[in-house]
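User: I'm preparing a small set of examples for a lab meeting where we compare how different chains pack in three dimensions. I only have the primary sequence for this one, and I'd like the structure in token form so I can line it up with the others. Please keep the answer compact; I'll paste it straight into my notes.
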Amino acid sequence: MTNPRSKIHSHLTPDRRRQRDFFIADFLDVAHKDDIASMEHPVFALKAGDHRVRAYERNGTSIIVKPGSDGLATIHDKDVWIFCISQLVEAINRGCEDTSRTVHFTAHNFLVTTNRGTSGRSYERLGNALSRLRSTTIETNITTDGMRERRGFGLVDAWRVVEHGPEDRMVAIEVTLPDWLYRSVQAMEVLTISPDYFRIRKPLDRRIYELARKHCGKQRHWKVSLTVLLQKSGSTTTLREFRKAVRSLVASNELPDYRLAFDTKSDMVSMYRRRTDGRIKELTDLLRR
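Assistant: Understood. Below is the structure token output for the 289-residue chain.
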């Protein structure tokens, strides 16, 4: 019998996509893609309502993120990026020659694909996310498609509602991505992520999933110190609270695709692919201890 407390404290939300209808099946079957640069570096805030200017520098890469009046765009707002990137990659893979930085989609498809509800409040939250993406600006020297330049831009260049429905609800939307991001999509500097990424409840857990996916892509596991993981996550919490959050995620064993282990003596975090080769590596590490 399932322990009801495990559901209350689950790190994953219920899978709403199981109730999909015929008309959105194609969107749900598209492989979800995330861009490598923002997976590696903390571009998005982990806390809603954050109005602080955030600066990050590591291994020659620098990022300065400045909020708009509504605060910084969050990692949940990033779902718009992921949705648009996924549609662009799918179009490129199908041989479409007329792709551009501007992506057209329906609000309903976005909400269902990203495991959100479809109430009026969900549409309102989508509008708020688009506003934060437009008003949040970033200055960085991240390399995309072989080009490294210092430049500033909004997380989206523009967005607009092209069709309204009853009660002035958004129906059709178009989003224009920044050239920096579009360039990385054209160069296929993207990685496939699990559909269950959208079920990850906590912002920090989402960020840790991104880092696991990025660093375990070509290797069976990734080992990192807690201090470095804190820096790469972009979290503004204390090391003590961060350690507590990581231990909670490890204990839940709910991170899609990856299993985490935490060595309290060395303060090192190990991430393993859930596939057989990753499990073998994890068992080997345990035996060595």
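A couple of notes for your slides: The mean pLDDT is 88. Residues 144 and 184 are 5 Å apart (CA to CA).

User: Perfect, thanks.
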